[in-house]
Amino acid sequence: MNYNKKTVTDIEVAGKKVLLRCDFNVPMAKDGSGVITDDKRIRAALPTIQYLLEQGAAVIACSHMGKPKGEWKPELSMKPVAKRLSELLGQEVIMAADIVGEDAQAKAAALQPGQLLLLENLRYDKGETKNDPAFAKALADLAGADGVYVSDAFGTVHRAHASTAGVAAYLPAVSGFLIQKELDIIGGALANPKRPLVAILGGSKVSSKIGVINNLLEIADTVIIGGGMAYTFAAAQGGKVGDSLLEADWEQYALEMIKKAEEKGVKLLLPTDTVIADAYSPDANTQVVPTGEIPDGWQGLDIGPATVEAYCAAVADAGTVIWNGPMGVFEFEKFAVGTQAIAQALSKTDAITIIGGGDSAAAVQQLGYADKMTHISTGGGASLEFMEGKELPGVAALLDK
Fold first, then answer.
1. What is the Cα–Cα distance from 90 to 69, expressed in whole angstroms?
2. Positions marked catalytic
3. Alpha helical stretches, state H, 55-170
4. What is the pTM of this model?
């Protein structure tokens, strides 16, 4: 896949209308008060928005929030985002009452250079997730005949939706700064990494990471496995895993990955010891046992101290580290030790450190190491598919440099 895509700085935007796809899918307070509990995604969009406005573009921003499935759900309105965005930008954000209806059309037509319009939740229209050409064209038409499309929602580029891929059929399409950074950093790490390249893969399921493991065994020097999926590897090698998370259907794949690592000369590190618990609970009784010797009634919830030591040593002299997925149940303090040790080791290394979104990003933030990482991806699913080597429809749709 070609990661060398045109960005906002490669085109002329002055005096033009720009349809800008953002990721404003922010967490909201559960009480329906319309309070945004974390505005990180809104802040992340500011550099691209400010650049476009300063260059004299009229910006029509759009995003989805939640999964309204084509229904108008007031609790998933973009109005709180418009309010927060106007506070951060220090200028009024004009809010459309619809997406491509009369109000949006009138406001888009009247929009002047330096002004910003925000459309209602894209997923209020079923045409968004279906990538309906008529809906995509209606979105593109808001920017007019000489309009431009800028994609800056990395978290959605793995989906071929109307606003992420469809609109590129009707408008010249380039990336914003957020997507450019993801493509430069993750794309660079996959295509031409500073070696040794160490990949750390955790999380609960082998099934969701098998494509990533498979692809990284082609390019990495060391692949480290932790989290719940380690027990499928242990069981595949004849170990006893007690009541630990196990995907028995995937044991054969685990054996194939072990064999592939041997054939490719890639170091595949699996946990040698495990912190086990007699219940899935923050205050369960615990003990440390060899990974393949977990008694019945007990379950593995974190990597053990010897494994922590080995994994941290592997990271210490890396040139590039890609990390996706926690080492244990980091939500419980007792079982966050492995994840915390990896985060700490990454904070001390001179390597390029890339955190692949999702739970690992949450863990690094929660544990206070976020500012020590080279890059934390803004897309969980997108960064996973990126690391799998899959084509991302929302990136493929952008113009090549």
1. 33
2. 41, 205, 358, 381
3. 79-89, 102-110, 126-129, 133-141
4. 0.86
